[in-house]
Amino acid sequence: MSSDATTAAPAALDTPGGVGQEPAAHGLGTSLPQAEARAKTEGTFPYASDLWAEGLLWAAILRSPHPHARIVSIDTTAAAAMPGVRAVVTAADVPGAATYGRRVADRPVFASDLVRHHGEALAAVAADHPDTARLAAAAIGVEYEVLDPVTDPEKAFAADALHPDGNLIRHIPLRFGDPEATGEVVVEGLYRIGRQDPAPIGAEAGLAVPRPDGGVEIYTASTDPHTDRDLAAACFGLPPEQVKLVVTGVPGATGDREDPGFQIPLGLLALRTGCPVKLTATREESFLGHAHRHPTLLRYRHHADAEGRLVKVEAQILLDAGAYADSSSESLAAAVAFACGPYVVPHAFVEGWAVRTNNPPSGHVRGEGAMQVCAAYEAQMDKLAAKLGVDPAELRMRNVMATGDILPTGQTVTCPAPVAELLAAVRDFPLPALPKDTPEGDWLLPGGPEGAGEPGAVRRGVGYALGMVHMLGAEGTDEVSTATVRVMDGVATVICSAVDTGSGFSTLARQIVQETLGIDEVHVAPVDTDQPPAGPAAHGRHTWVSGGAVERAAKMVRTQLLQPLAHKFGMSTELLQITDGKITSYDGVLSTTVTEAMDGKELWATAQCRPHPTEPLDESGQGDAFVGLAFCAIRAVVDVDIELGAVRVVEMAVAQDVGRVLNPAQLAARIEAGVTQGVGAALTENLRTARGLVRHPDFTGYALPTSLDAPDIRIVKLVEERDVVAPFGAKAASAIPVVTSPAAVASAVRAATGRPVNRLPIRPQAAVAVPNS
């Protein structure tokens, strides 16, 4: 893969800090490497699965083999009597709240009366050996009355209630403009998006250690430690101060670390046995236990005038939430609000629903809601272009959104929205050479160099997609983060409970302090719940909210450092600057080092960052629900064997609205990763179920894209138009390429085959060209 804008688009380097620029020593705009990069590459970094404690016991969880069943009885006698077994816990042993949930507390710690999805937890065992724990869990006798599962979300509306809260989680009717408006040209489509799994390479793991005060400490790879701590404490029947959660070795996260469903059984076992208890999930447990991207059914009707300008969009969006609510309400809000995409639409009427079924639980995965609708509205734009005989890129250009336009939710786009600039950049970027133009090179046929395809059956397609996502929480979420910066003996320490899930926050925090205080050596303290809360690691929150808190705290320390000097020389602190560890005045009278100015003192400050508030969508889907937006344009080039239906993504050209480049190398890596995840959603990733049963919950049955599947990724333009309300002006970077790239790949396959391609991932039969295409 290539993400180097030096060769792709020199224009992307016109601004300071562009990708490819020679890095400075430190500070914002430089490619400061991650502090733990060496340990991770050498294999010495301690992940959660590496934890150990004296007197350790091992845990195992018994999970349901049925997607829907009534529990007649659970007999733990045989399991408890096995040598080496120290404890067996079921729903009857939960001392506090029997259910939990980040947004809605509707998910039981252990199923007690009904099983609502395949893999739901029924009991947990602690034993002196992991094999003993697994055998004991298998020895628990459960008598089921198997029930017919509800697996079709369309049938959930009329089905018997699967949960005391009913089957409908949320309904959003969006009404914007004139319902009687019509266009001269109308196109319709029905689209289906599959169940993408976060598929972490490092499966869930954790260690719970009992405390002398009757509490417990849980060491795990959490992305929202304070919320996880509070949920666990409620289930333990303990006050939050008696439960401590320590974040250890997060091996990356795209939503898969947000389910505390295995942390709570772990803590219960530690409290019951009085011993440390460790749990490392198997790959099958990982697939069955955590949340997945919402499978979605979408119906669309686009109206346009004779020139292709959009008049009205009508849509129905149905999200399959699986057994429990989780983040489905928030995902639905994003899907409905962004149902028309980054286009100007005078009239929009959208109905959105999220419903419970007996399918695996759905929840937060990068770009939730926005990714599904992007695939659908971009397919509609391709249909409209074909019907009008207009170039697909030109049709999009006639409709793109800009700053000052109004979303269908009635919210004005006040942030930079350079959508036209992004689209022009990918449209005008040179196309990759055709195989016949480079006969000396090896041409990889779709399906691989040893595939069964013939070069004569291969067609090349070029497709476009424009995507948008919101940053931070939405609909009234109170976004706040707290950070402390402490400086002593020439070393700065940042204390903030923002978890770095691969977004690079810990590196960004170091860069902020380096730039503000001129100190090279900056450390970021390990995260635990003794620190003030910083909120979840999602929607680019920590770059904005936690980075803003670090910046404010560092500036407060800077004032403490400079005030004595300014007072001594009779000037204000604004007339002093810190550069490369030196403090100088505007007139050159004062010149000293930061170390000399510190004079052995310890300086520290704590600050908060809270963006401006938002509001929930009303009964018509209207409201200022989002703090900020980010945009992306992608042009995909694919080769398709039109006889076999095999697809190879040749190149993805990306232009992205980033606000400001804070770390060029890190940003390029985030974009590359996002595009690759999106390619997986487009072509291979689908956690398949048969009547609610997960089929092949492993990496043999669930096909992740490998380095051989990843295309050339060309970052052709990074638009650095700073968002004035965001700290540093930067925008979220990783979710938006995930949202946009599946739609771009599908568009390119349409161009190559002439087929509608209305389902993701794209099945081979959908990529076989129609006769004479």
UniProtKB/TrEMBL annotation:
InterPro entries given in the database record: Ald_Oxase/Xan_DH_a/b, Ald_Oxase/Xan_DH_a/b_sf, Ald_Oxase/xanthine_DH-like, AldOxase/xan_DH_MoCoBD1, AldOxase/xan_DH_MoCoBD2, AldOxase/xan_DH_Mopterin-bd_sf
Aldehyde oxidase/xanthine dehydrogenase a/b hammerhead domain: residues covered: 42-148
Listed SMART domains: Ald_Xan_dh_C
Span list, region Disordered: 1-37
Biased composition, class Low complexity, residue ranges: 1-16
Name of the protein described by the UniProt record: Molybdopterin-dependent oxidoreductase
Organism lineage string: Bacteria, Bacillati, Actinomycetota, Actinomycetes, Kitasatosporales
